[in-house]
Each structure stands twice: as C-alpha cells, then as structure tokens.
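Re-running Branched-chain amino acid transport system ATP-binding protein to confirm reproducibility after the cluster update. Everything else is unchanged from the original entry.
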Amino acid sequence: MLLELKDVRKAYGSLVVTDGVSLSVTEGEALGVIGPNGAGKTTLFALITGAVKPDAGAIRLDGRDITAMPAAQRCRAGICRSHQIPHPFETLTVFENLLVAACFGRAMREAEAADWCVEVLALTGLLAKANRLGGTLTLLDRKRLEMARALATRPRLLLLDEIAGGLTSAECEALVGTIRTIHAGGTTIVWIEHIVHALLAVVGRLTVLNFGRKIAEGEARSVIGLPEVRDIYLGSPV
Ligand SMILES: Nc1ncnc2c1ncn2[C@@H]1O[C@H](COP(=O)(O)OP(=O)(O)OP(=O)(O)O)[C@@H](O)[C@H]1O
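Result of re-run:
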C-alpha cells in the first residue's frame, strides 16, 4: 500500500472537519475524492502533505508511519499536491517556478532539475511559455503551472485539488488528457474534483466525504450511482 490513513481526526474548535477517516491508496492507482463544499476534502490533502497535523489517527507511506513527519520531508519522500487557487511565483518565469519546486521541494541538483523541468513543461503543454512570467498567465496556464510545479518535485503520489474548476469544457478535456498521461507514466493520483465527468475519465475508484466522514467508497461508476451520493449532488451535473 502506498498511502494509508487510519482513523484520522482533525477538529477546529467544535467543528470536526475530518472525522475518523481511513483510506488506502495502492501504488499506481487513481482515486477520486468528491463531496459537497466544506466536506473536508482539502483538509484531507493538508493532513496527507503534513501542512496540518491530525488530532488523532495515523498516516503511513509505504507502511512507514509519517504522521509526525514535517511537510518538506514528505515532499522529498514523494508526496506533492496542487492547490485549488494557483499561486505561482509571479515575478519568476514558468521554468524558474518549476526549478524552485525541483531544487527545494525534491532537493534535485540544478543540472538534473533543469532536464526534468523541461520534460515536465512538455508534458503539461507549457514548453512554449517557459520564459513567460508566472504572473502573466491565463487561468488555464496557471492551472497547468500549478500541476507542473507539483510534478517538478517528481512525486510518487500526486494530489490534485480541483484542478479542472473554472475551465471551459475544451480546456478541461485537454487537462484530463494530461492527467491520464501522468497516470499512465506510473504516478499514483488522488484527485479532488467537482466536475465528475472529468474525474470519471481518469479514476477507477471514488471516495465520498460528507461533514468530514467517509460515506461511500468503491468502483467509481457504482459509487456515483448510489442514492445517498446522488442526494448530496442533487442539482450538480453528475
Ligand atoms: N484553518 C481552519 N480553521 C477553521 N476552520 C477551517 C480551517 N480549515 C478548514 N476549515 C473548515 O473546515 C471545513 C472543511 O473545509 P475544507 O476546505 O477541507 O472543505 P472542502 O471539502 O475542501 O470544501 P470545498 O469543496 O469548498 O473546497 C469548512 O467548514 C472550513 O471552513
């Protein structure tokens, strides 16, 4: 098992945001995470990356307990995420944004990092924009850069947080193609997404969160057909 969460709990005051969540992700799989706003999806990523410490429970990578491991060390161990709202270094170029991630996130030497970052730029469709400043990009390219920065750390486990949100359907389709390529290259993916048809084009399994609890999990299309899941998404295009 690549990643395991066991009875993980996180509360902010009286608000229990992650309520005894257990989760397993096998090497090479693509898992989708859905749930309404405020269900605790992003907090789950913060717990996995180490940005937030759980109140209880355990997190394991390759069977090794990483619950107390600092975030920077987890990144070097191969866990990296993209954020829902991209915040690139706006005064650095696209290429420099990636170099920072590779050198500081993954501790690569500069020559190795430069070669790898060129590969990532090609994979994410950013090669022609390598010398643009991060602050000058369109939303689609910011989203691509957000994913590229995470990829630059050469993750074994890539966590994508609503990467398709706000894109046109053609842009979304192109992004899905890129994510499929990344997955086919052997990277394990956990993807939080509200655009369910995009998610279903990539993931084999789905986990559903509601009020911090896991309410369903299993083969993606079966899970999406469950009455309790459809209830939660009533009005959303599932
Ligand atoms: N640092 C914090 N302090 C207090 N409350 C927080 C904090 N972080 C998250 N929360 C609350 O925890 C709940 C879950 O937030 P979270 O961002 O994990 O949900 P989400 O499922 O990702 O939602 P969305 O789909 O809107 O992104 C929300 O009610 C949020 O306001």
